[in-house]
Amino acid sequence: MSFDLITLSFFLLFLGFLLVCIIRMFFCLLRLGDERRQMIVGKACTFSFTGTVGYLLLSVLRAFFHGQTVLLNPLITLSTVAILFTCSLAWYQRKLGG
């Protein structure tokens, strides 16, 4: 019983983390700032876009070589983009001093 409660609490904590990352990503994209902040957000957007295109390309290649279509879950795709954006935003803020 306690194992199920621990697993459930970790799952809910992970879902909360994903929700915070998704909301933060959208608010960071909407908020205007000075030129340095725009450069940091632009670089983070470029990195997350490149990662998303790579993820989709690997999915297409996998479907092509296995001969079957694989349905992509939109929540997993959005979560992947949000985590990539959050990590790259933190990296470029640290690197460029934002």
Automatic annotation (TrEMBL):
Keywords: Membrane, Transmembrane, Transmembrane helix. The chain crosses the membrane at residues 6-32, 44-65, 71-92. This is Uncharacterized protein. It comes from Evtepia gabavorous.
